[in-house]
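Hello,

Our lab assistant flagged a job as stuck in the queue for most of the afternoon. It eventually completed. Since we weren't sure the result was trustworthy after the delay, we are filing this so someone can double-check. Below is the sequence as submitted and the structure that was eventually returned. Let us know if re-running is recommended.
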Amino acid sequence: MRSDSSMMQPLLDGFAARARTSDGLAAHRSPTPFADATPVAIDEQEADPGHPRDLHSTLLTRRSSLHYADAPVRTDLVLSLLQNALRRDSDDWELDDDTGPLEAFVFALRSEGKPAGVYRVTARELSFIAPASVVGDPELLGVQREFADAGGIVSLYANIDRADSWAGSHGYRLCAVRASMALYDFHLRCQSHGLVGTMFGGFIGSAVRNLVQSDGVTRHPLLAATYAHPAP
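-- returned structure --
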């Protein structure tokens, strides 16, 4: 009878592998562009609501929450926090040329200052993709209906085609780590500004596959988070 360690070794070897499994032509493929997207500028006054709590205070008060107020959230603040998190990811890892940059989509369900809708965010670009009505029933965005009660949902995407061509399983693993770090960066900064939310892996990417032009390879969802004002 094989030991547990011997049964796990092939799996562990697979995670450690850097051999690509694709055709190696990812550099010649790109995620589908959004020809009708409208560039968005952040209103700095709306994005800067005052002095946020420091990291220590934020960690002491931080809670994962599925109970939210109905009040809309300043989308300029959300876009600013998210883009800054993606910029830090790009600058710290310096892997955008190898694995492609991370990409985020904000489903602003209850928005203040900007139209409710879908926004695309990268370290370098901000754009409005579609009005919220195109999303349909927001309960279809997550495996738990409570997610749809938030002010909005953020989903992080990566180009796993590029990641695989660069370093096989190791490339995918780094994309997952980067997405987790960037989204936790955003999540904690939301908390420092008095917002609440939760990180979750149950985002149903197929519900918006056509909307965000996700083919599951050049643009693949990895992790999501809600944001909202706290329930009274």
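-- support follow-up --
The delay was a queue issue, not a problem with the job. The result is valid. Residues 160-192 form the longest helix (33 residues). DSSP finds six helices and nine strands in the chain.
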